[in-house]
Amino acid sequence: MKNKITFGHCAAFITIFIWGTTFISTKVLLNILSPIEILFIRFLIGYIILWCIYPHHLHLTHKKEELYFMAAGLCGITFYYLFENIALTYTLASNVGVIISIAPFFTVIFACLFLHEEKPHIRFFIGFIIAMIGIYLISFSGSQLQLNPLGDFLAIIAAIIWAGYSILIKRLSGFGYHIIQTTRRTFFYGLLFMLPFTFIMGFDVDISQIVMPIHLFNLLFLGIGASALCFVTWNLAVKILGSVKTSVYIYIVPVITAVTSTFILHEKMTLTTLLGIILTLVGLLLSENKKKKEKIIYEYTE
Questions:
Q1: How far is residue 214's CA from residue 103's CA, in Å, rounded to a whole number?
Q2: Residue 178 DSSP SS3
Q3: Is 266 helix (H, G, I), strand (E, B) or coil?
Q4: Which residues does the UniProt record annotate as the domain EamA (predicted)?
Q5: By C-alpha distance, which of 23, 29, 37 is closest to 194?
């Protein structure tokens, strides 16, 4: 049991570690592709890779389960990324980074309402406040907070949508299907619901630009690593740890981003940023801490 729980934490950390570095690849690709083009291509690559890894059709036991897959694809793939990217066009990236990090708070609310889970211990909320202070220090180190109502509101919507996706994945995990099949099905609906937006927002890809080594490498990283691998490991972590415990790992995305910016982009690590990293990690530990008598049910099925 303990080893299985440890595996769940490792899966969540690996996911967040990779997601925390995707900004570099996205930044490179934005020179040749629009946000919607990057999203569609990366998830299409991920969908194909998941078929190659596990080429088995998913046969649903009950037709109503299809609605959960549709909702998960719409929320976690289409709406979350669209709202996040649109928010970035109206407000600062640092604002979006802080606001998206409140997703665990909404996950707790949804878990209590829809999964009928017990209310979290006071340590969760103390950890949440400490982590948010840390994330604020990381995101606004050397700069001032600038409110942009529309963009900030869209970022809040994105955080709520991601919380909803986490709850849906927890429900999907209870159906007993293979984790790759579950992830692949959500990718399918995510891509399907994304199609209308490719027509509205425009989709004009220059293949000669894409096949350039630097662009191809970053697309494959986003498609294989950040999409195919990370959504499987995230969904697996939710299956093992639950939606709330997994969601708090979102706190360390700004930490990973700050550290990789220092080593890869050679950005300066300030004392404020360092303090923010420490507070964020303390908040994460407090939020993850549980009472000794608390039991975690492992629901993983082959």
A1: 33
A2: coil
A3: coil
A4: 7-139, 150-286
A5: 37
- 52-92 pLDDT tens trace: 999 999 999 998 999 999 999 999 999 998 888 788 778 76
pLDDT at 295 over 60: no
DSSP letters, 241-297, are: H-HHHHHGGGGGHHHHHHHHHHHHS-----HHHHHHHHHHHHHHHHHH---TT----
Q: Which residues are within 8 A (CB) of 179 and not within 5 positions of it... i.e. 6 or more apart? A: 173, 232, 235, 236, 239
pLDDT at 164: 94
Cα separation, 45 vs 36, in Å, equals: 14
Residue 176 neighbours by CB under 8 Å, 6+ apart: 301
Q: Residue 14: in which H helix or E strand, if any?
A: helix 2-19
CA distance 96 to 252: 14
Instruction: State both tokens at 162.
Output: 């991601």
At position 32, the amino acid (one-letter code) is I
- Cβ–Cβ < 8 Å for 160, 79: no
Q: Classify 81 as helix, strand or coil.
A: helix
Backbone angles phi, psi at 184, to 5 degrees: -65, -40
* DSSP code per residue over 110-158: HHHHHS-PPPPPHHHHHHHHHHHHHHHHHHTTTS-----HHHHHHHHHH
Burial of 40 (0-12, 13-18, 19+ CB in 10 A): buried
Reply yes or no on whether the pLDDT at 261 is more than 80.
no
